[in-house]
Amino acid sequence: MESLTNLWTLFQYFILGIVQGITEPIPVSSSGHLIIARELFNVEARGLSFEIFVNFASLLAVILIYRKDIVRLIAQTWRFLFKGDKNAKSDFMFVIYLVIATIPVGVVGVLFGDVLGEALSGIRVVGVTLLITALFLWIIRNLQGRKQDGDLSTKDAIIVGLAQAVATTPGISRSGATIVASMLVGMKKETALRFSFLLYIPVSLGTGILEIPEIVRDPAMGQLWGPYLLAFITAFIASYFGLKLFMDIMRRGKLEYFAYYCVAVGLLALFFL
Q1: Element (H, E) at 204
Q2: Per-residue pLDDT tens for 158-191?
Q3: Number of domain units in the chain
Q4: Is the Cα dihedral 184, 58, 169, 130 positive or negative?
Q5: What does pTM read for this prediction?
Q6: Among the residues of 87-122, which ranges form H helices?
Q7: Which domain holds residue 24?
Q8: In terms of C-beta distances under 8 Å and separation of at least 24 residues, what long-range contacts does 40-43 make, across chains too?
Q9: Helix (H, G, I), strand (E, B) or coil at 147
Q10: Are residues 32 and 129 in contact, defined by beta-carbon separation less than 8 angstroms?
Q11: Nearby residues of 3 by Cβ (< 8 Å), 6 or more positions away
């Protein structure tokens, strides 16, 4: 009987890892889907430690996919700052805009993170915010921006940063909010994708570092290290292929697919869960 219970627990966390992994990079809200999955499978992983743990797996997948961009930006920033290479200024400014865009979510996270997580984690809230996500994805579905990496401004970075801060609300997709904002300020799809996911790296990394004490103190980490590890591995794999899928759909200009999906899941959360 105990072995069956252990297998069921592993299955539950396997599903949570897949849900986190697939929905983190695509614009459908990973936090909202984790809340829905917990309701469906009755998993009591309600603390932030599990979400942060599997979120780190998604972070590693994003870093793997954008590793060449990361290396280039670091190298170009070094050349601009310490070798005076004017040709590296565009990449250096791109890094500065990423820093600027990170500030709003950092402020919101420090001041209101716990409050937002507790107060807005209900299934009905997730249903409403998924419908809001669908609306904005529908609005930008046919936008064709012109701004490339070297055309961005401080104003663009602030607007995208504020959108990312709004996405601390469960059900509002982080990638969706930042890509919507990026395209509304005129970025090309490729630039919007790159800016959104490179922006994800410092936010996710910073959150993980700040929450290390909570993860260490969480008794579930000791009791459920096997299921947590399984969820971590599945989240990493699913995030990698989820982001690849999203990049392909963005290139083909089919963002309305995600809008339809968010409407369906939002209505499910509102009326059937």
Answers
A1: helix 189-210
A2: 999 999 988 888 778 888 899 999 999 999 999 9
A3: 1
A4: positive
A5: 0.87
A6: 89-119
A7: 2-271
A8: 40/273, 41/12, 41/15, 41/16, 43/12, 43/13, 43/16
A9: strand
A10: yes
A11: none
